[in-house]
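[Automated response] Your request has been received and processed.

Submitted sequence:
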Amino acid sequence: MATNKNQHFVPRCYLNAFTVDGERRAINLLNLDRERTIPAAPVKNQCSGDYFYGHSEPLESAIQYVEGGYAAAIARIQSSKYELTDGDRTVLRTFMLFQHMRTEAASMRAVQMFAGMEQSLGTSVSGFAPSIKEAVQSAMRAFGEQMHLFDDLKVCLVRNKSSRPFVTCDDPAVVANRWHKEDERVRHKSPGLMSCGTVVFLPLSPRVLCVAYDGDVYSVPHEKGWAEVRSEADVAAFNEQQFLNAFANVYFRDLGDAPWVLDSYRAVKARRLGSRYELHYAVLDGETQTHKRYRVVSGHDAEKHAEAIVHTRLLSPTPSRWPSLLRWRAKGRVFTNGTGAGYIRAAQAPFRSIGGYRREASGH
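Generated structure:
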């Protein structure tokens, strides 16, 4: 049985860098629903739940191993004259994927998707619908099987030289895809974790942020693993990713920044999505000896038919801007085999390929 009852889905070793005066006891937060600042909230109570991962001691040990590696890497990164190493790149990529998959927000999206199916279809899917804890435990099993999905992404650190800090939130490892948002070939499709154009943002402290990105599509100028931002507009672009992805709370270190944090949130809150998925229904409309034909209908019509297909599409918010250092790579490239698998990064394509993948220009 797990020995730790209060289990964090955003670990304290991560939040510590954003605590008041860096003292690891209290943290300032903005609650998004109420648009209210809560000063000096106990950090131990943030982003946690009783036995959130269940009662598995091996799973808890594995989580502590990943978190321990991250904590050690952060200590090195915060030292003077640090240069990013390949070992710490691996630690950061692993932690980013782990953190993206483990949060309450990620699990809640899965639960809400099944609830939406029940509401629209007018029937129970209780045999399939998970609880939040079941969803996060399933995600942890998936992480164990897919923990190398980000290994091909390039990684660099961003040093904040502006007058404004980076903020973070209760779902801080933001997986985005600028290429999917802007290229006509895929604009209306949902990218996955293996997709071309993947970029991941994770603030490490108010002054340091980590970016992992598809090096075949983007270029981030850096030296010895470090890039710099001096513009408040760039800091705002990074922070917008947190505001759009947050589940309930945004965290920041200095209480004096509270009015600016609230104003920054209000400037972009209209871009937040009320739902992170959409459902499409197709009912049986005819068949031959070899094929069945389906017709897209509303959910109300779908429940009148004996056979229907339910298709879910994940949605992601569109930011008002992207950080200027995330540049298009000259002669960038993407990969596809022309199937529904879409455009898959070269390092990931062999795991999904039946036919051969071809290279195409990224178009930027």
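Summary generated for your ticket: The chain has two domains: 6-274+318-361, 279-311. The longest helix spans residues 57-77.
If you did not submit this request, please reply to this message.
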